[in-house]
């Protein structure tokens, strides 16, 4: 195993260089660059634009720009400077990563904690009422697109605001629900996503109020992401457990007098869990790439909105910084999944 890990680590180096070089070239091949929007301004100073391009090295060949950027990563861990914000890329992307990491991590933990026991329950109770009910919800979850489910939740929130306010009539017991239902879907979350007012309000809160505010506004986006992953993962776990329930070693374990709980969780689940563990390779990049459409609709200040804005503004090094983190986490995730598979499944050995 040690030799295998060392060999895999060395294999990650050319993979990382190839992935980042390809991404860098593709981004550079798009028409125009960051200074083009200033060049279109009739009042722009041509000399100032020339100095700007010289400072950022935009006139250098693509490979020269790439190797300068890569040398900064190797020597100092420096991802470059943002063209738009005139600040190190790390300062720009770290807050976005933290927001996306929080959202996706909570959703993934809930998905795995719910999918495994539900899938086992369905397999053990195949074709019974409980299995049919969960199968129905799983099919509905797979059939409904995320963007439509998001809209349904928004409509539900807006619809419930009026009736609940009439029922509450100032009763303090309903206040948390009303606060949640009245969160502004147009202007986004209370913590800063742009605008002086929201920033001032958020900064005036104590640290535990800030944490509570973030968690409170995580409810709807977390619900969307969790249900989307739960529907498919439950089907995988159910199918795997059903396959191994018919195996010879399960019949042998039962013939030895082992309890059904030991048979399921010690023998069946250990073999059936392999596809779930192999999927861990994609989990780490998801923690950085964010939740896509969900972040846009719910105004969550995460990676996806920041990535799109950086592309629109042709902010090269911000885009590359996000791609670098995604590539690294994807490679690390695949390595972790391979190691976990070897630990869980005794049939897998790396020599």
Automatic annotation (TrEMBL):
GO terms for cellular component: plasma membrane. Coiled coil: none annotated. It is a multi-pass membrane protein. One of its GO terms (biological process) is transmembrane transport. Residues 97-341 form the ABC transmembrane type-1 domain. InterPro entries: BPD_transp_1_N (IPR045621), MetI-like (IPR000515), MetI-like_sf (IPR035906). It comes from the Bacteria. The keyword Transport applies. SUPFAM superfamilies: MetI-like. It is found in: Cell membrane. Pfam families: BPD_transp_1, BPD_transp_1_N. Signal peptide: none annotated. The lineage of its organism: Bacteria, Thermotogati, Deinococcota, Deinococci, Thermales. The keyword ATP-binding does not apply. Belongs to the binding-protein-dependent transport system permease family. Keywords: Cell membrane, Membrane, Transmembrane, Transmembrane helix, Transport. The chain crosses the membrane at residues 12-30, 62-80, 92-121, 133-160, 215-237, 316-344. This is Peptide ABC transporter permease.
């Amino acid at each position: 195993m040690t030799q295998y890990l060392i060999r895999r680590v060395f294999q990650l180096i050319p993979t990382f260089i190839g992935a980042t070089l390809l991404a860098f070239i593709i981004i550079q091949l798009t028409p125009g660059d960051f200074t083009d929007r200033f060049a279109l301004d009739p009042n722009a100073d041509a000399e100032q634009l020339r100095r700007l391009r010289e400072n950022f090295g935009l006139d250098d060949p693509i490979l020269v720009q790439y190797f300068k950027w890569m040398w900064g990563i190797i020597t100092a861990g420096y991802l470059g400077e943002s063209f738009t914000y005139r600040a190190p890329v790390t300062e720009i992307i770290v807050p976005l990563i933290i927001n996306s990491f929080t959202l996706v991590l909570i959703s993934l933990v809930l998905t795995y904690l719910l999918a495994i026991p539900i899938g086992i329950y369905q397999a053990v109770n195949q074709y019974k009422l409980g299995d049919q009910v969960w199968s129905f919800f799983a099919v509905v979850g797979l059939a409904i697109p995320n963007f439509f489910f998001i809209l349904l939740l928004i409509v539900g929130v807006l619809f419930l605001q009026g009736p609940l306010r009439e029922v509450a009539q100032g009763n303090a017991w309903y206040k948390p629900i009303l606060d949640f239902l009245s969160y502004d879907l147009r202007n986004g979350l209370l913590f800063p996503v742009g605008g002086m007012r929201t920033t001032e309000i958020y900064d005036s809160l104590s640290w535990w109020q800030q944490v509570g505010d973030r968690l409170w506004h995580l409810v709807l986006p977390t619900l969307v992401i969790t249900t989307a992953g739960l529907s498919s993962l439950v089907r995988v776990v159910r199918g795997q457990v059903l396959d191994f329930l018919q195996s010879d070693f399960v019949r042998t374990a039962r013939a030895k007098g082992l309890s059904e709980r030991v048979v399921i969780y010690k023998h069946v689940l250990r073999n059936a869990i392999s596809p779930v563990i192999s999927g861990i390779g994609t989990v780490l990049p998801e923690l950085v790439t964010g939740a896509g459409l969900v972040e846009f609709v719910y105004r969550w200040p995460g990676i996806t909105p920041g990535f799109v804005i950086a592309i629109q503004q042709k902010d090269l090094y911000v885009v590359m910084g996000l791609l670098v983190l995604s590539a690294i986490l994807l490679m690390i995730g695949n390595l972790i999944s391979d190691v976990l598979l070897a630990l869980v499944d005794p049939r897998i050995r790396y020599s």
